[in-house]
Design brief:
The chain is mainly alpha-helical and 106 residues long. It is 83% helix and 0% strand. It is found in: Cell membrane.
């Protein structure tokens, strides 16, 4: 169950990061409220995963899911660069997250 909480926490990062982007530096009320509220939810769900997972592994996976997901949202939704080098480095994040999950599962 801890890994499910961790996945949910990481995925909520996509929502709050995109909402904060839309808030235009916290100057637009509703995107700012959504972004900050979902950020709090993300941390709460992360804390549930920390009941059983080591903090170093959980946080690294949490940040990896968020970094990869937000980068992909940026590419798809905001027209950010999808250069070969950027995609290659994002793939390295995936490898790291999978590796950490495999180490904790064994």
């Amino acid at each position: 169950m801890a890994w499910i909480f961790l996945l949910i926490a990481g995925l909520t990062e996509l929502v709050w990061a995109a909402a904060l982007k839309q808030s235009d530096g916290l100057t637009r009320l509703w995107p700012a409220v959504i972004g900050l509220s979902v950020a709090l939810l993300s941390v709460v769900v992360l804390s549930l995963s920390l009941r059983t997972l080591p903090v170093g592994t959980a946080y690294a996976v949490f940040v990896g899911i968020g970094a990869l997901g937000v980068a992909l949202v940026g590419i798809v939704a905001f027209g950010e660069s999808a250069s070969l080098a950027r995609l290659a480095f994002l793939a390295l994040i995936v490898v790291g997250v999978i590796g950490l999950q495999m180490l904790e599962s064994s």
